[in-house]
Amino acid sequence: MNLDGTHVAMITPFDGDNNIDEEKYRNFIDFLIDQGVDGIVAAGTTGESATMTHDEHQKVIDIMVDQADGRVTTIAGAGSNATAEALDLLKYVEDAGADAALVITPYYNKPQQSGLYNHYKLLNDSTNIPIIAYNVPSRTGVDLSIDTILKIAELDNIVAIKEANPDLNKLAEVFSRLAKSDIDDFTVLSGNDSLTLPMISQGARGVISVVANVLPNKMSTMVRSALDADYTKARTLSNELYDMMDVLFIEASPAPTKRALNYMGMDIGGLRMPINEISQENDAILKDVLKEYNLL
C-alpha cells in the first residue's frame, strides 16, 4: 500500500448536544478530498478519540469508509493503553474496510520496550490489516526506541510509523539502519507538521497532518513538491505554512483547529471535556493568523 503524501488527522464535528454530527462529518470529508489530500484519518487523537465511546469510535470509522468510497486512503485510529482493547478495535477497523489502522503506543502504562514490541506483534499476528504504529512520547509518556522500531518494521503487517518524536537525529539513525537492513517496504510519516519537510529530506514519505484540516491544498502541495524533490517550492510553502502550524498548537489540540474551522464557516461544533475552548488571548492570536491566510 502506498502511503505517500498528506493524510489528514481529521477533527470530529459535533452538534449542539456534543454528539457526532454525521452530515457535517461527511461534508468535511468531501471538502478535504476536493482539496486534494491523499488520505484521511478518523478516530485519531485530533478526532478526540480519547473521549469517544466504543460505539462512537466505530461510527466515525464507518462514516469515513463509506463517504470516502475509495477516493483516498482511509486510516482508522485503533489504539488503546490495553492491548486487548486495541485488538478489538483493530478487528473492527479490518471488518469496516479501512485501508489501514493507526495504532498509538499504549499510553500511561509506560511499558518496557519489550512490552511495546509484544503489543505490536500480537496485533500483527492477530489481523491482516496494514498497521501504522504511532509514536508520540509527548502524549503517551513512552518513546519507541530505534531498536524497537527496527524490530516492528520486520513484522509483516506493520507497514509504517507516524513519528512525532521531534528528534531528527534519532530519525537519521532510523533511516541509516533501515538502509543497511533487508527491510525495504517500511514507510515513515511525519507526525509534526512543522518538521515534515526536513523529515522528507531524510526519507519520510509524507505526513499525518493537523494543519491539513485548515489548509489541505497548501499542505498537500508542499508535501508533493518535497516528494518530487522540488525543494525550492516545498521550502517556500513550508515557510508560508509555519504560522498556521504553530498557532494550531497554541493550546491543547484540537481546540485551536476546531476554533479556526468554525471561524472559517465550517460549523463543526465544540469540544469534548476535559479539553476547553481556547482563551480570549489566544483566540485573538488565532484570528490574526487566520487573517494572514485570508481565512477570516
Terminal CA distance: 38 Å
- Helix run count: 12
> How are the strands of the largest sheet arranged?
7-6-5-4-3-2-1-8
Name of the CATH class? Alpha Beta
Percentage of β-strand residues = 5-15%
Which stretches are low in confidence, meaning pLDDT under 50 for 5 or more residues running? none
As for the number of domains, it is 1
The computed structural class is alpha/beta
Mind telling me the C-alpha Rg?
Answer: 18 Å
Q: Report helical residue fraction.
A: 40-55%
What is the strand and helix layout of this fold?
Elements lengths: L4 E5 L12 H13 L4 E4 L11 H15 L4 E5 L5 H14 L3 E5 L8 H14 L4 E5 L1 H4 L5 H8 L4 E6 L4 H13 L6 E4 L5 H7 L3 E4 L6 H12 L3 H17 L7 H9 L16 H13 L4
Parallel strand pairs: 1-2, 1-8, 2-3, 3-4, 4-5, 5-6, 6-7
Helix pairs in contact: 1-2, 2-3, 3-4, 4-6, 8-9, 9-10, 11-12
Quick summary:
The chain has one domain (5-230): Aldolase class I (TIM Barrel).
Walk me through what this model shows:
This protein is α/β, with parallel strands linked by helices and 296 residues long. It has helices at residues 22-34, 54-68, 83-96, 113-126, 137-140, 146-153, 168-180, 196-202, 216-227, 231-247, 255-263, 280-292, and strands at residues 5-9, 39-42, 73-77, 100-104, 131-135, 158-163, 187-190, 206-209. An 8-stranded parallel β-sheet has the order 7-6-5-4-3-2-1-8. The longest helix is centred in the last third of the chain and has 17 residues, at 231-247. The protein is globular and about 50 Å long. The N and C termini lie far apart (38 Å). The model has no long low-confidence stretch (mean pLDDT 97).
